[in-house]
Amino acid sequence: MRNIMVSVLIMPLLLGPNVLQSDADPESRDMFLEYNLLDAVALPNDGVEYITDSDNFPVLNIQKEADIKTPYRLILPERLNDFQISGIMRLESLAGGYIFSIVNPLETIVQLGVHLSPVASDFMNITLYYTDPSYDSSRELSAFEIPYTKEWFNFAFKVLHDTLIFYLDCEEFSSAKIKRQPTILTFDSASTLFVGGYIFSIVNPLETIVQLGVHLSPVASDFMNITLYYTDPSYDSSRELSAFEIPYTKEWFNFAFKVLHDTLIFYLDCEEFSSAKIKRQPTILTFDSASTL
Ligand SMILES: *[C@@H]1O[C@H](CO)[C@@H](O)[C@H](O)[C@H]1NC(C)=O
Ligand SMILES: *[C@@H]1O[C@H](CO)[C@@H](O)[C@H](O)[C@H]1NC(C)=O
Q1: Is 253's C-beta closer than 6 angstroms to any atom of ligand 1?
Q2: For residue 76, how far is its CA from the centre of ligand 1 (angstroms)?
Q3: Contact yes or no for 38/48 (Cβ under 8 A)
Q4: Is 245's C-beta closer than 6 angstroms to any atom of ligand 2?
Q5: Measuring CA to CA, which of 26, 124, 167, 283 is 20 to 30 A from 238?
Q6: Which whole number is the average pLDDT over 25-39?
Q7: Is the pLDDT assigned to residue 18 strictly greater than 50?
Q8: Is 142 in the pocket of ligand 1 (CB under 6 A)?
């Protein structure tokens, strides 16, 4: 993603029942602090520069090739209870991408992050990723569809005990009930904070469009999902045509997807395992001529 940013802040909130315990909380001294994720930017960095906006205010211009990452511990506290994420930015492309993400050491799970989808019909989804430690893959806590704008905008997510409030341009835009277990987010100590354009292949399949592909999820309780990606040309991001949960095995196995006009049949070890009705439009898959396998 290419964009221009003024700030991306995380602020612990002094709200809820924890207020009373704050004296006992070793991190209570952090309560009034705010953490600016753009402190992760070390210059010089190819693809990042300070420019001045129309008010002569210095802002960060982050290009697609920018690779901004740092151990999260240099910027953020170890734990977050109730907190707010806010940012001021201007989009320079319609491609979407992560505004920031805090990713586990294996770079397989986004523990906390904000993602913008590609713009479609002048709208985009802004998604808060928030993954409880018991999850094996990144979890979208909530997503909000917001109008695309070429202008500066600011957004904020207020993450409370069981409620998420989303603000757009300082007004409450929407809210959602959420479940966090536990309600304190503790980062893996060797996690990495990424800001802006960095494209990491495992966590971020949305950055590029998979026209056709087969994906295996991480194994969980001896099962895994095998997913067929099949993206009609009208889609702006990769589309899962269908997924099947199959038993994990250490042995050889074979699989087959039979993609018919409006039916997908999945075979495991030469036996029909399951099938699904599908919609393909058009029913002929035409690859972009410069595609990569
Ligand atoms: C936003 O997400 C919803 C739900 O997944 C989807 O129906 C909608 O098309 C998305 N909008 C954009 C602009 O991507
Ligand atoms: C497979 O996908 C389904 C639906 O998203 C999910 O409920 C299930 O937990 C997944 N299983 C594994 C092993 O990832």
Answers
A1: no
A2: 31
A3: no
A4: yes
A5: 167
A6: 67
A7: no
A8: no
Q: What domains are defined for the chain? A: 34-203 (2.60.120.200), 211-277 (no CATH)
The predicted-structure confidence for 44-94, as pLDDT tens digits, reads as follows 777 788 887 767 777 888 877 778 889 999 999 988 999 999 998 888 888
Name, in order, each residue with C-beta under 8 angstroms of 269's C-beta and a sequence gap of 6 or more: 253, 254, 255
**Residue 101: how many CA atoms within 13 Å on its side-chain side?**
26
Q: pLDDT digit string (tens) for 192-247? A: 998 875 444 334 444 467 889 999 988 889 999 999 999 887 777 788 999 999 99
Tell me, using a 6 A CB cutoff, whether residue 237 lines ligand 1: no
Name the amino acid, one letter, at 178: I
What is the C-alpha separation between 119 and 183, in angstroms, rounded? 32
Task: Identify the nearest ligand to the CA of 140 by its number.
Answer: 1
225 in contact with ligand 2, CB cutoff 6 A: yes
